[in-house]
Amino acid sequence: MQLPEFTRSTTLRWTLLVAGIFAASIVALLGFVYLKAKGDLTMRSDRVIATQIGVIAALLPERRLDAINEHLKLDPARVRLAGLFGSNGRRVAGNLDSLPPDLKTDNTVQGAVVDRIDQGGRERQAVRLIWFPPCFFALRSVWRWAPVPGSAS
After folding, report:
1. For the stretch 24-55, what's the b/e string if a residue is b when 16 or more beta carbons lie within 10 angstroms of its beta carbon?
2. DSSP assignment of 31-87, as one string?
3. pLDDT tens figures, 70-109
4. What is the pLDDT of residues 16-33, one digit of tens each?
5. Hey, which residues does 110 pair with through a beta bridge?
């Protein structure tokens, strides 16, 4: 089968080449904007969470439990996660079942997979967490393309 005459023309080839270069540059530009915005928004939200948890961690121990429970009660979308754990690793307050096994205690933001427990049941979630001594950390959900390891979905 022979292609029509216009498909073999130099004009069509140049048009397709320019259109391809234009499309590739648009994709590259959108990718650059996405990566910059993602990093900036992650950094900003990590700072907000660190500030919120810094306020809670500075409270007296008996007031801290009420602050954590109030923080979690004002979460109809189930996106807030917080946990207060004793020095032995047992949960004192919050909606997390246990500490992640690979938790680094160097006050840096890190990613982990945790078990959330609340009225909705138990659910594994990928999160970003911040460690605050003594044995206190706060988390937020992370949207992921891939399913969380060990989850049913």
Report:
1. eeeeeeeeeeeeeeeeeeeeeebeebbebbee
2. HHHHHHHHHHHHHHHHHHHHHHHHHHHHS-HHHHHHHHHHHHHT-TTS-EEEEEE-T
3. 888 887 777 788 888 877 778 888 888 888 888 777 777 7
4. 999 999 999 999 999 999
5. 129
